[in-house]
Amino acid sequence: MRLASHSEMEMNGKYQVAHWMGGLTALVAFSLCAAELPARPPAPPLPVEIILPELQITAPQVRPHVEFLAAPEREGRGYRGKTAAADYIVNHFKQLGLQPLFGESYLQHLPDWQNAKAERPIYVGANIGAVLPGSDPELKNEWIILNAHYDHLGIRNGVLYPGADDNASGVAMLLESARAISQSPSRPKRSIAFVAFDFEERLLWGSRWFVAHPPCDLEQIKFCLTADMLGRSLGNLSMRNVFIMGSEHSPELRPRLQGCNPTPNLELSLLGADMVGTRSDYGPFRDEGIPFLFFSTGEHPDYHTPQDTPDKIEYDKLAEISTLMARLTLDLAQQPQAPAWSPGNPRELIDADTIHRITAQIMAADDAGLMHLGDLHRTFVSQLHSKTGYALRRGKISPDERVWLIRATQFLLVSVF
Question: Cα separations (Å) of 49 from 25, 54, 174, 181, 267?
């Protein structure tokens, strides 16, 4: 998983920290214009109908995948260690009786991006895919794509980067979802493709190649579900949240998301994908107008460090999110009508609500000594909390305020976490 897209951030300077620091005072000052109103009472919970209750993924099922993929022998799933990881994923698909996604092969070989158009390209990696064909004579020609990237940073300067959360956790979800769905008595009407992308850490090269060279007509892909970093929590805060981006393009899915949630302990935090930039392999699908959802528990201090190890994964939480994603994938494959792309409504309050909850937890953690914010950051977080609360109490947010909220949220992720 990336902090943001290379095109948006890395190519314009490392996360634009200087730009953000220069704008922090302006952001805080703009926040101060929000009038203080009494606290809004919490919204009553939506009625939840559990969908597909027989489909359940447990912590003991996801844990061995994370431990294998993030073991030192995998060498951080860089150029050398990816081979054993790829074999592991392919063998899992074969054991489940899933069909190869790419003709007669489970592998879609990836050329070097610098010589992709060469007559005899050099192949440097591979996407891995399997398919469960749909049971409906008509709907089987429509595809749902469930995916997670399996590559990581490898060994750099002699230092191993295990990548347990990024993204062995997502691959564990993918493998156990494939098992649960393929063994479920509820047979999918649409075809479901399970894809492990390579080179996410290199400008999303694997998913970009997949979308440019799909195993079916691109129009047949009706929905994309992407997972990246499902096993920890944002900033190591004590949160039972999973962040879900993309529902602004499929708002009718929100009740179904709640219905597929296996436990009230797991909070579904919705954000617009534009709030944080392109962060993972849903990007190429989104750019083609394919509806998508992106699931992540957020970044933490061990992100892209040698400390991202299997012992730090919250396996119960990973299992709950895996269950949610597996249920939703199967549910989407069953529905008579696939979700249609919606342009999104910039006046929606889902972003303000999620950021309001996050900032409340940040301030509580700072008060408890679990985080250490400087005075300027504390003021910024407090005013961001105040301004989002003001929008929620008004019941509306203007387009200009949402533009400010996007900038403030991006600064929050770069500077606080």
Answer: 46, 13, 24, 19, 15
Separation of alpha carbons 55 and 173, rounded Å = 13
Q: Please state, in angstroms and as integers, the Cα–Cα distance from residue 118 to each residue in 107, 115, 122, 210, following that order.
A: 20, 5, 8, 18
Backbone torsions φ then ψ of 348, nearest 5 degrees: -65, 155
The torsion angles phi and psi of 368, rounded to 5 degrees, stand at -85, 0
The model's pLDDT over 173-194, given as tens digits with 9 standing for 90+, comes to: 999 999 999 999 999 999 999 9
Query: Helices then strands (H, E): number in the chain?
Result: 11, 11
Contact 184, 135 (CB under 8 A): no
pLDDT at res. 208? 98
Return the residue matching tokens 């990007």. Answer: 283
Going from N- to C-terminal start, the domains of the chain cover 16-33+346-415, 59-334
Closest CA to 28 of 361, 377, 362: 377
End-to-end CA distance of the chain: 15
Q: Under CATH, domain 59-334 is a member of which superfamily?
A: Zn peptidases (3.40.630.10)
DSSP secondary structure letter of residue 38:
P
d(CA 57, CA 180) in angstroms, rounded, equals 7
Measure the CA–CA gap between 171 and 314, rounded to whole angstroms: 15
Contact 204, 281 (CB under 8 A): yes
Under DSSP, is residue 347 helix (H, G, I), strand (E, B) or coil?
coil
